[in-house]
Amino acid sequence: MYQIASKKILNPTVTQMEIVAPLVAKKAKPGQFIILRVDEDGERIPLTIAGADQARGTVKIIFQIVGATTEKLNHKNEGEYISDFVGPLGKPAETENIKKVCIVGGGVGCAIALPIAEQFHALGAEVTSIIGFRSKDLLILEDEFAAVSDRLTVMTDDGSYARQGNVTVPLKELLDAGEQFDLIITIGPLIMMKFVVATAKPFGTPVTVSMNPIMIDGTGMCGGCRLTLTRDGKKITQFACVDGPDFNGYEVDFDEAMSRGRMYFAFERKAHEETCNLFKGAK
Amino acid sequence: MANMRPTRNPMPSQEPAKRAHNFDEVALGYTEEMALDEANRCLHCKNMPCVSGCPVNVHIPDFIAKIREGDYEAAYQVIAETSSLPAVCGRVCPQENQCEKNCMRGIKGESVGIGRLERFVADWHNARTDGAVTKPAPNGHKVAVVGSGPSGLACAGDLAKKGYEVVIYEALHTTGGVLVYGIPEFRLPKAIVAKEVEGLKNLGVKLETNVVIGKTLTVDELFELGFEAVFIGSGAGLPSFMNIPGESLKGVYSANEFLTRSNLMKAYREKPVTPIMKGGKVAVVGGGNVAMDAARTALRLGAETVYVVYRRSIEELPARKEEVEHAQEEGIDFRLLCNPVEILGYQNPDDPRDEKNGFVSGIKCIRMELGEPDASGRRRPVEVPGSEFVLDVDTVVISVGTTPNPLIKKTTEGLEVNPKGGIIVNEDGLTSRDRVYAGGDAVTGAATVISAMGAGKKAAASIDAYFTK
Predict the structure, then answer these.
(1) Is A44–B274 a contact, with Cβ atoms under 8 angstroms apart?
(2) What confidence tens digit (pLDDT) does each residue in B427-467 have?
């Protein structure tokens, strides 16, 4: 059993928790993920690590309430326990030899992008951050990004806060203006990452994308998280859990990943509705 | 005088029509009368050919003699001298290729049902034991075991009995490894695995779930924690695919994923929390035990038709004979001498938002014929040009093997692996690293429960020899 050390509502659909897991906290690096089960007989879900505190032995997770499991998790409170928490899994984000980096985060993906931005900042790299949200009430972590970014642009789809538009708009402006990034790192919805790659392509800037496909064990056993990459003109299969979750954005088949991500869409929608009803009934 | 009837006692089983719709165990086990009758068929050959056919050399005629005397507990103790998991192996061993293959009674009839007798004895023991054991006096040595599958459980058990302090680290949330995530309930009830694990706990073995060695802790850190030896029984790894078009369509699973969803995550239940595709038409590609398990699981999940697509003929089918027979009885449709060339997907040209887009609609196969024997001694299947045909299916399960997990190798300096990625060990189970031992699928690639169990026992003996020399 793993105790919830703290819980903080970041916005109506996004919650932050710190979980007591000293072994994971000791090893966790930006870009890696954990797998948790809320309760016995629960589903295993992967969540990217949003930070770790070695001294307190806690690991920070930030999750969007999208399905039955995240709904159940969100109903847990500080001091309560979840049944399983394993990690850190996957490879850490690569930070070597990067002097000038652009971090492009979308929605809850910003939660994962933040520790990467923090790490680059700590290593002395010049950090440009572009973070986007659907609207003002979904905005998270603006101050935290501002603290570690040499330049920060906030975007909202509906213009309810800061600049209106997609994250690709300021990215393209920067690239058009001749900015030379050593690397662009993008974390967020697949469709956003796909267009970040498309925006960077004419400029030849390397892009790293963080993939979060459907997973079960997360240790390289089930193969459910496989992605198709095109490398040196050849299609290859890679596993997000052990080969990723970060990949070269130019190699990833996003359309396939988007399609596979929707495999259980109907099931998940129904399960989420039922879980919501369950909690309503309990009140 | 031995019972000279040429046929063995058939295994009582659930009726095929009934069992195809439930996850209860198929084979029900011998009654005492059947066991006594079957035991009387053993000739007690002096040279004991059955024993040499057993990967762990269970003293088969001796335990059968104890059955004849009606002393079933003594029979169990004979098996337990060399095997750690009798109730498991009695159910899942490919006996027809091992002990029973060498049985003299098999020459002019059917061999003695050794596996069935082993199961009878183990179940008899398990039904009567309260699991209480006298914990051996600690010998002061600490050993870490990586993985709680058959090799890890066997290694841990043998060491604990000798007084070692043993901690098993398991990556998943449940112990048992492939016995839990891989082999379905209808072939190996999970209560049996739980009983074995309980037995280890009673011996003082500690089990730590949710620890991935190679990630959460490395092998070197285990030594820093005070362990004096490490056994790696991390099992088989990433599933192999065929590299044919369409393998990323929705509805294509590796057998590992399909079985893990059903077995470990209980997706077979009526209201599962982990989803799985149920019903429709299913094609399972491959001919091993895992393929049989996947096909029969699909059937029990409600599939109207389940095909097994295998590129060789029935003689080469590597699965346990009993599983193939059970699958056939249950109505699994074997498409032998067929090889998939493409998985076909649905795409509505008029509606890009059609929810069926990107899901499997069929599997295109080509007929094969058997040519010259290949390196494995089996006749190599060759394609019959122009013989392609399509099976309409909704789900495809690919069961063509696995490649070893890279996590431990990557994080353990000096640990040598073979070109296929399997950990290299010597005859003692020792790896290229001092006091690091390994066994089971992590070494051999996908193999049997009993050979993994045997490797775990061998490593335990080597570890003990190291500390007592």
Answers:
(1) yes
(2) 999 999 999 999 999 999 888 899 999 999 999 999 999 99
The dihedrals phi and psi of A8, each to the nearest 5 degrees, come to -140, 125
B418/B356 Cα distance (integer angstroms):
43
* Claim: this prediction has a pTM higher than 0.90: yes
Residues of chain A positioned with their CB less than 8 A from the CB of B210? 84-86
Record: contact A220-B172, CB cut-off 8 A: no
What b-and-e string marks burial along B255-289, b requiring 16 or more CB atoms within 10 Å of the CB?
bbbbbbbbbbbbbbeeebbbbbbbebbbbbbbbbb
Identify the residue among A20, A24, A222, A263 best suited for mutation to test binding to B, counting B beta carbons within 10 A and taking the highest: A222
Pull the structure tokens for residue A1.
């059993």
Interchain proximity B248–A89, CB inside 8 Å = no
DSSP string spanning B346-409? ---TT-TT-TTTTBEEEEEEEEEEEEEE-TTSSEEEEE-TT--EEEE-SEEEE-S-EE--SHHH
**What value of ipTM does the predicted structure carry?**
0.92
| Residue A214: CA count within 13 A, CB half-sphere | 24
- Chain A residue with CA closest to B259: the answer is A222
pLDDT in tens, B170-215: 999 999 999 999 999 999 999 999 998 998 999 999 999 999 999 9
Instruction: Give the pLDDT of residue A198.
Output: 97
Looking at CA atoms only, how far is residue A197 from chain B in angstroms? 22
**Residues of chain A contacting residue B261, judged by C-beta atoms under 8 Å apart:** 216
Environment class of B468 (CB within 10 Å of its CB; exposed 0-12, middle 13-18, buried 19+): exposed
CA distances from A180 to A115, A125, A172, A198, B134 (A): 23, 13, 12, 16, 70
- CB of A126 within 8 Å of a chain B CB? The answer is no
Looking at chain A from residue 37 to 76, which residues have their Cβ under 8 Å from any Cβ of chain B?
37, 41-44, 68-69
